[in-house]
Amino acid sequence: MYSLLVKKRTVTYDMTIFQTPNFGDKKGYKEVYRISVIGTTHTEALNNIFQVFNVNDRIPQDYTARYLSTGDIILIDEGKKGQFYYKLFPQDWKRINRIHVR
């Protein structure tokens, strides 16, 4: 029997991190950082960005916000394919409707 190895295509996703001024706030999300992240799916890209922004040695030097944590929102902008918002919950990232950013 032959085993087929399916290679998934990696994509570079344009991602924007939104956080509230204080951890735990429900309102007042502001853009804190924009970065390109590689992944084969949104889930993989979200896991990759979580690893980068929660390990001190991996965080970009120009990043001045806090670690990614519960309640933070990531925007994945795929241009003509659309914009996708994900919020970090205790269990995992969940897709949400767009947010109001001031």
Walkthrough of the structure:
With about 100 residues, the protein is mainly beta. It has one helix and five strands. The chain has one helix at about 40-50, and strands spanning about 10-20, 30-40, 75, 85-90, 95. The protein has a five-stranded antiparallel beta sheet with strand order 2-1-3-4-5. Strand 3 (about 75) and strand 4 (about 85-90) form a beta hairpin. It starts with 10 loop residues before the first strand and ends in a 6-residue tail after the last strand.
- C-alpha geometry: globular
Which class do the helix and strand fractions yield? mainly beta
Rg: 15 Å
**Number of helical segments?**
1
Poorly predicted sequence stretches spanning 5 or more consecutive residues:
none
Q: Give the averaged pLDDT, no decimals.
A: 90
In sequence order, what are the helices and strands, one letter per element?
EEHEEE
Instruction: State the distance separating the first and last CA atoms.
Output: 58 Å
Strand content: 25-35%
- Read across the widest sheet, the strand sequence of neighbours is 2-1-3-4-5
Give helix % range: 10-25%
Task: State the total count of DSSP E strands.
Answer: 5
The biggest beta sheet, please?
5 strands, antiparallel
What does this entry show, briefly?
The protein is mostly beta strands and 102 residues long.
Keywords:
102 residues, mainly beta, 5-stranded antiparallel beta sheet, 1 helix, globular
Strand and helix map with partners:
Layout: E1 11-19, E2 30-39, H1 42-52, E3 73-77, E4 83-88, E5 93-96
Antiparallel strand pairs: 1-2, 1-3, 3-4, 4-5
